[in-house]
Amino acid sequence: MNHPKEGFRTVRELRCADLMAGCNFVARGKDDSEVMKKTAEHAKSAHKMAAISVEVEKKARAAIRDAGAFEPGGPSKA
Ligand SMILES: [Zn+2]
What we know:
This protein is α+β, with helices and mostly antiparallel strands. The chain has a domain of 38 residues. It is 33% helix and 17% strand. Strands 2-1-3 form a 3-stranded antiparallel beta sheet. The chain is globular, with a radius of gyration of 13 Å. The chain starts with 10 loop residues before the first strand and ends in a 10-residue tail after the last strand. The site of zinc ion has 7 residues, from helix 1.
């Protein structure tokens, strides 16, 4: 992989609404595993899921996409 622009990073994101209708949560990360980690934490606290089942994980991974243009210094500082 090469990085055409210094400081530009492709970010992956998962919209919880793709899994749970009506939820506004969006998990962002530098790669799929970071997104999955945030999604798992969110699912636990917001949706009372003790653990992500294989089925839910499959759906979640399929729903992860490139977040596209990303402003440096923008979101995902948490
Ligand atoms: Zn949610």
